[in-house]
Amino acid sequence: MGPVMDINDSNELVALFAVGQLGSSTTTPPGGYGINDLGQIATSAGAWTNGVVSPILIPGAVQIDVRKLNDSGQVVGDFYDGATFRGFIATPVPEPGSAIAGAAVLAIAMLRRSTRRASQARAGKGA
């Protein structure tokens, strides 16, 4: 399995060459540096979630390594720009579809609230 790099509250561990559960042989992507309590894994390729790697893209970077991630999905790591190693922190941004859906739900809730207030105001004037 290689050197163990991190373990979460569910006893899932991540190692440089494999990831698994303590006492089992289940593995997920190699190259892991950190794992959060949601089972998301910081790998050399990016943040791994349910079999999908979300790469971290930094303009001008020649090499990027994600080292750790928290339960909110924020990642920290380092990158090399051809001259210097630098650290970074990245916060996930919702996909546009998620943001649009969230804004639509908020707009509907606000519309219902203003309609209800208008109805209550009219009912109060007529009494």
Q: Mind explaining what this structure looks like?
A:
The protein has 127 residues and is an alpha+beta fold. The chain folds into two domains: 4-92, no CATH class; 94-127. Helices cover 24% and strands 35% of the residues. It contains one helix and ten strands, in the order ββββββββββα. It has a four-stranded antiparallel beta sheet, with no helix packed on it. The longest helix has 31 residues, at 96-126. 16% of the residues are buried.
The strands making up the biggest β-sheet line up spatially as 4-5-6-7
Biggest β-sheet: count, sense, barrel? 4 strands, antiparallel
Overall 3D shape: elongated
- Count of individual beta strands: 10
Please trace the helix and strand order, writing H or E for each element.
EEEEEEEEEEH
Query: What share of residues is helical?
Result: 10-25%
- The secondary structure category is alpha+beta
End-to-end distance, in Å?
Answer: 77 Å
Average of the residue pLDDT scores? 73
Determine the strand fraction and express it as a percent band: 25-35%
Tally of contiguous helical segments = 1
List the uncertain runs. Answer: 19-27
Cα Rg = 23 Å
Total count of domains: 2
How would you concisely characterize the structure shown here?
With 127 residues, this protein is of the alpha+beta class.
Could you name the key traits of this structure?
127 residues; alpha+beta; 2 domains; four-stranded antiparallel sheet; three-stranded antiparallel sheet; 1 helix; 10 strands; 24% helix; 35% strand; elongated
